[in-house]
């Protein structure tokens, strides 16, 4: 195979195909805020998310300690984009204002999404998201490091996972990957996934089993 030409590039973002998550967190007035993010990964019962310090989500999380990581499917992207220039911050930071952000108190209404009460945390879940993960802070983020770079790296412990029955295998805890179509953020474009291409040796269901 001939060598592929390579280039050094300086992309403005590195969202190379990360899932979109809607973080619900509790505002000071007790209502739930909704923050789209795409900095999220999971290992066992831990989730790590990246939250900018100028947003409302980090302030809510530091105060309340709990949140829900709601995972939309690909077709929900217009609802996510409706949130794209909204912040729960009452006083919109200058940088966000310059990008066209405004304060919105009820982001569920703005997005056209519906609330479900959580079972173990104070923040509401997003009914339309096929996966909703209740979680709490595992440890206080390093805020000195966060201030230095402008965002916090937040470790969460998973408390409970809720799934639409339509994306699970009957009578099991497995997700049917032919039905679960996560919304990916790919260099600021919203994308879906293709049909499953293969299975890992540890996969517990055959490829394409429904
Ligand atoms: C698809 C998408 C992905 C985003 N990813 C992140 C992210 O990973 N981390 C982050 O802090 N902000 C991210 N943002 C920007 C936040 O949504 C924005 O900071 C917003 O102010 C958060 O709402 P809040 O201020 O009410 O918390 C993303 C926005 C969109 C639309």
- Low-confidence residue ranges: none
Q: Report the top-level CATH class.
A: Mainly Beta
Beta-strand residue percentage: 25-35%
- Overall mean pLDDT stands at 96
Spatial strand arrangement across the major sheet:
3-2-6-11-12-5-4
Percentage of residues in helical conformation: 10-25%
Mind telling me which CATH architecture this is? Roll
Helix run count: 5
> H/E element string?
EEEEEHEHEHEHEEEHEEE
Q: What is the CA–CA distance across the termini?
A: 38 Å
Total beta strands? 14
Derived structural class: alpha+beta
Number of domains: 1
Structure ligands: flavin mononucleotide
CATH fourth-tier homologous superfamily: Electron Transport, Fmn-binding Protein, Chain A
Cα-based radius of gyration, to the nearest Å: 18 Å
Approximate shape: globular
Largest sheet: 7 strands, antiparallel
CATH topology annotation: Pnp Oxidase, Chain A
Question: What do you see in this structure?
Answer:
With 210 residues, the protein is an alpha+beta fold. It has one domain (20-190): Pnp Oxidase, Chain A (Roll), CATH 2.30.110. It contains five helices and 14 strands. The strands form four sheets. The protein has a seven-stranded antiparallel sheet with strand order 3-2-6-11-12-5-4. Strands 1-13-14 form a three-stranded antiparallel sheet, with no helix packed on it. Helix 3 links the parallel strand 7 and strand 8 (102-103). 29% of the residues are buried. The model has no long low-confidence stretch (mean pLDDT 96). Residues 20, 33, 35-39, 50-52, 55-57, 80, 84, 87-89, 151, 185 line the site of flavin mononucleotide.
